[in-house]
Design brief:
Blueprint: H1 16-22, H2 35-38, H3 40-44, E1 48-55, H4 57-60, E2 64-69, E3 72-73, E4 76-80, E5 83-88, E6 95-98, E7 106-114, H5 117-132, E8 152-154, E9 157-159, E10 164-165, E11 169-174, E12 177-188, E13 196-206, E14 215-222, E15 245-251, E16 260-266, E17 271-274, E18 286-289, E19 292-294, E20 296-301, H6 313-325, E21 330-333, H7 342-351, E22 354-357, H8 370-387, E23 393-395, H9 412-416, E24 432-434, E25 453-456, H10 464-467, H11 482-485, H12 493-504, H13 513-540, E26 555-558, H14 581-589, E27 598-600, E28 603-605
Parallel strand pairs: 20-21, 20-26, 21-22, 22-23, 24-25
Antiparallel strand pairs: 1-7, 2-6, 2-11, 3-10, 4-5, 4-7, 8-9, 12-13, 13-14, 15-16, 17-18, 18-19, 27-28
Length: 606
């Protein structure tokens, strides 16, 4: 069979799927009907991106000329003027290549030759198995490539393993020194927090230290008394201030006019994860900001789209503003997605949404061979330095902020257990995940009396308005049509929604679009009431059981905030940005002032 070459114009930042759709090769949006199957060939092919660009003598006269790529997705060989200058294998790493000796005055060509992510992941799995004579259980091999795990599909979304240059790429020029990263720590000098100091660690790259890679300069700055500091608090906590300050760092060498500059937005606040012993056994697990304990109310974030270049700043703002409007103060960035954009974290700072930041590992055993750990080490170092200055960052795996090894975990108890607990969902320690698809979820007695619940949820269908973006009117029937039914990616999803809805409501009779719409509505009411009942229990569950050590719940983050496509999921906001019934309920059950009457042993309590 003859090979067909496809050539289209590419947009950077972008992805091959977006390029093919924009140029008409893909005739429909990737989420319409069966396109998650029909467009699989895109991910299985290898694609090459080529561009010509002009270089003048002023560029080549610089002592350092780097190609700086802030995000390559994912497996590629990079050529300039047909000379290999480097390879990439990690979507979450910033790559830097010295290209001074391969550039020329006039026209130059850059070429990135990508390899199919699924093919690469499968090959890595096979090679690992052969080399170490050991098989790591892996369903679709996403754990063998440092790439957004959800792009291989999840139980709430389709598989679209992308290729492309997903962040900015360009030439970086300097003669003496450049600031690469700035790590910022704010520390109060008094208990009243009226006086503060800054501890800075400025990471530099210079001509003189090229062999070392980088050097760091530590700077301590006491904020003068005549500069009043307003401390930063999460949404709805204390005086509810999200005051931000600009920090600008300039670096230059003596007798040289070249200046390297970076500006960061910072907030003055302290954050601690409190884990103290309780009787008869267990540890507390709650956050304290500026010395004040607070109840963590919120949700979990997944990637907003399979094609990250399709996500607009306006849409990100809508989703984060929606969390604030629903009285949330914390959100977990789930480890199967990506470290989010600078704009995302800037918004979290602005809105007072504290971020539980996962390192990008999710739901699988990962390799631990030296090559894999080496790229992960670079990834984690870069991402911590990029994000840590944000006052919204509450917790992740590093030595500056509070630390947990995973989610769920047993917190400090996990260290004693050498991170191999037989019961990582122990109600007496750390955070837990809880899902139940069979019990009556409007009954508060079903739910666990734990310290912090970082995942819990129940599914519903999105509105007819949202589903209509992916289906035709003929697909909307009850019982469900095959087209709609196959969107359910959780093995228990369809049955659990119908069973739980049927427990509390009379289910629709057989019919077309009207009966289907009835079913959608019932699924959303069922979901909203289930999460309402569960969250209200967690919020009032402050007592400690003297017999078990259970209780004193200080955090509730339901799964999940947002959708990636038009499908039945746990989300409270549909892929179009429309609120489900659950999100409107969240505005009430996350209100700072909440009165919760409940029945216990035939007695009404509150």
């Amino acid at each position: 069979m003859a090979m067909i070459a496809i050539k289209v114009k590419a947009k950077v930042p972008g992805s091959i799927h977006s390029d093919l759709r924009r140029e008409g090769v893909l005739k429909q949006d990737i989420y319409v009907q069966y396109n998650d199957i029909d467009y699989q060939w895109v991910s299985l092919d290898n694609w090459t991106f080529v561009k010509t660009f002009t270089v003048d003598s002023n560029i080549l006269n610089k002592k350092t000329v780097n190609l700086l790529a802030k995000g390559i997705d994912t497996i590629s060989s990079v050529f300039i003027n047909d000379k290999l200058i480097g390879k990439t294998n990690n979507q979450f790493v910033r790559y830097k290549f010295n290209v001074k000796d391969v550039l020329k005055v006039g026209l130059n060509t850059i070429r990135l030759a990508f390899q199919s992510a699924p093919a690469y992941a499968l090959q890595q799995y096979t090679d690992h198995q052969r080399k170490y004579n050991y098989t790591i259980p892996s369903e679709n091999k996403y754990d063998f490539i440092r790439k957004m795990a959800a792009s291989f599909g999840w139980d709430w979304g389709p598989s679209f393993p992308t290729q492309g240059i997903w962040k900015d790429i360009g030439l970086e020029l300097y003669d003496t020194v450049i600031i690469r990263d700035i790590v910022v720590e704010t520390k109060p000098l008094t208990k009243s927090m009226s006086n503060w100091k800054l501890n800075l660690n400025v990471f530099l790259e210079s001509i003189a230290d090229q062999d070392k890679g980088e050097v760091s300069v530590k700077i301590e700055i006491a904020i003068p008394d005549n500069i009043p500091i307003t401390v930063w608090y999460p949404n709805g906590v204390a005086n509810d201030t999200q005051k931000l300050y600009k920090l600008k760092v300039n670096v230059s060498l003596v007798d040289n006019k070249e200046i390297s500059s970076q500006t960061k937005k910072i907030g003055f606040r302290t954050i601690r994860l409190i884990q103290t012993p309780i009787q008869p056994k267990g540890l507390t697990f709650y956050f304290e900001v500026n010395g004040l304990p607070f109840y963590a109310k919120g949700t979990n974030w997944i990637p907003a789209h399979n094609l990250l270049d399709a996500v607009t700043d306006d849409y990100i703002r809508h989703l984060l503003v929606s969390t604030k409007e629903a009285n949330m103060n914390m959100m977990r960035v789930w480890g199967g997605g990506v470290y989010e954009t600078d704009y995302f974290y800037d918004l979290a700072d602005e809105l007072g949404i504290m971020i539980w930041q996962d390192i990008m590992f999710a739901c699988a055993p990962y390799p631990s061979n030296p090559e894999f750990l080496e790229t992960v080490d670079v990834e984690v170092r870069q991402q911590i330095r990029r994000i840590q200055n944000h006052p919204s960052i509450a917790i992740w795996s590093d030595n500056v902020r509070p630390f947990v090894s995973s989610s769920p975990s047993n917190g400090l108890q996990a260290i004693k257990e050498n991170y191999t607990s037989g019961s990582p969902n122990d109600y007496r320690y750390g955070d837990i995940h809880f899902y139940d698809y069979n019990s009556p979820l409007w009954d508060w007695k079903v739910f666990p009396s734990s310290k912090f619940v970082s995942e819990y949820g129940f599914q519903s269908y999105p509105s007819l308005e949202t589903l209509s973006q992916a289906f035709s009117a003929n697909d909307f029937t009850y019982p469900l049509s095959k087209a709609v039914e196959r969107r359910q990616r959780n093995v228990f999803g369809k049955e659990s929604i119908e069973k739980m809805s049927g427990r509390y409501f009379k289910m629709p009779s057989n019919g077309n679009i009207d009966r289907f719409n009835d079913f959608v509505y019932l699924s959303q009411i069922t979901q909203a009431m289930a999460i309402k009942s569960e969250t209200e229990f967690y919020r009032r569950n402050r007592d400690i059981d003297n017999q078990t050590g259970n209780g004193y719940t200080m955090g509730a983050l339901y799964w999940q905030l947002n959708d990636i496509w038009q499908a039945p999921t746990w989300a409270s906001i549909e892929s179009t940005g429309k609120w489900k019934v659950l999100h409107s309920y969240a505005k009430q059950f996350f209100d700072n002032l909440l009165v919760v009457p409940f029945e216990d042993n035939n007695q009404l309590k509150r």
